[in-house]
Every structure is written in structure tokens, then in C-alpha cells.
Amino acid sequence: MNEKRKMLAGGLYDAADPELQAERDAAAQWMARYNAGSGLPAAQRLAVLRERLASAGDGTEVRPPFFCDYGSNISLGDRVFLNFNCVILDVVPVTIGDGTQIGPGVQIYAADHPRDPTARRSGLEFGHPVRIGRNAWIGGGAIILPGVTIGDDVVIGAGSVVTRDVPAGATVAGNPARPLAQASR
Fold first, then answer.
1. Which of 24, 63, 79, 113 is the catalytic position?
2. Which of 126, 167, 124, 130 is nearest to 145 (CA)?
3. How many separate domains does the chain show?
4. How confident is the model over 93-103, as pLDDT tens digits?
5. Which domain does 119 fall in, by range?
6. What keywords are assigned to this protein (predicted)?
7. Which listed residue, 81, 86, 171, 175, has the most CB atoms within 10 A of its CB?
8. With pLDDT > 90 as the criterion, what percentage of the chain qualifies?
9. What pLDDT digit, counting tens, does each position of 130-172 carry?
10. Is 106 part of any domain?
11. Domain for residue 143, yes or no?
């Protein structure tokens, strides 16, 4: 199995592999072009997103600057909104559902490293998919860690670090993010 297949399967892989480096280089060139197009009409920016991402639904808006590892492992539903300076480390699939709104500076990490120091010294990495449901609201500066699933209609407070799954309809905040009492508005 080549390094890319290992990566996509969530196994240990060598990120220095020439094929993976070439894909990250291509993604960097695409990001430079996308990020330079902040003044383009929304339809043109969406067309550029669709060149690189696995999918980008109708009405989706990603405000530049935007950063990712590959782009090809990111799936955005319809009417997804990512504000300025979002980072998605997409070594495995990152899926964001319809109508989800993501604040500025949010970081979504699917990339991970071994906990064992000997294994970590080998330079090998792995990933865990991140799934964010429909109609979620993720406040600015939040960090979503590898392997987390966020349900539909969830609210994540600004600056939160989400270390575990969040069930549908929950509101969480803090570091680590914990459930809050529901407030109606």
C-alpha cells in the first residue's frame, strides 16, 4: 500500500512521501490563487473552491484567507460559511453539513501524531476523520481535534477546544469543551 492510501485509511504514513508532498504543493498553489481572489464575486470564488475540494455545495462561502493540507479531503454541504482565517488539516475526510456556520480563526484538525515518543520520532503520522453536522454554529477561534463528530444543530462557544464528540442539539464551550445549559434566543 502506498503512503497516500495509508494516509486516507487512517494508518501510519510518511508525510515526506514525494507524492504527498506534490499534492500539498499543488494545494499551496491553489490556496495562493484562492486567497488572492478575495475581491471576486461569490460565484467565482465558489468555482475555484470546487476545483480543489472534494465538494462545495450551492451557496457555500469560504472567506479568504483559507488554509488546508490537501483540500481534496474536504466536503462542504450547501450554504456552509467559513469566516476569515480558517484552517483545516485534511489528511483524511473532513465533512461539514448543510447550513453550518464557522467563525473566524477556527481550526479543524484531522491530522494526528503518535503518543508514544519512539513512534513519534519515526516521523510517521496518521489521521482521524472529522464530521460536523448540519446547521452547527462554531464560534471564532474554536479548535476541533482529530476524530471528533459534531451533531446537527450544535453550538460551539468561541475559543472552545472540542476534544470529544458533541451530540445533536448540544451547546458546549470551554477547554475542554463541556455542555452548557441551553439558552433560548
1. 113
2. 130
3. 1
4. 999 999 999 99
5. 3-179
6. Acyltransferase, Nodulation, Repeat, Transferase
7. 86
8. 95
9. 999 999 999 999 999 999 999 999 999 999 999 999 999 999 9
10. yes
11. yes
C-alpha cell of residue 86: 480558517
In a domain, 29, yes or no: yes
Is residue 113 among the annotated active site residues? yes
- 0.90 cut: is pTM over it? yes
Report the C-alpha gap between 47 and 40 in whole angstroms: 11
Type of residue numbered 62: V
Which CATH number goes with the domain that contains 162? 2.160.10.10
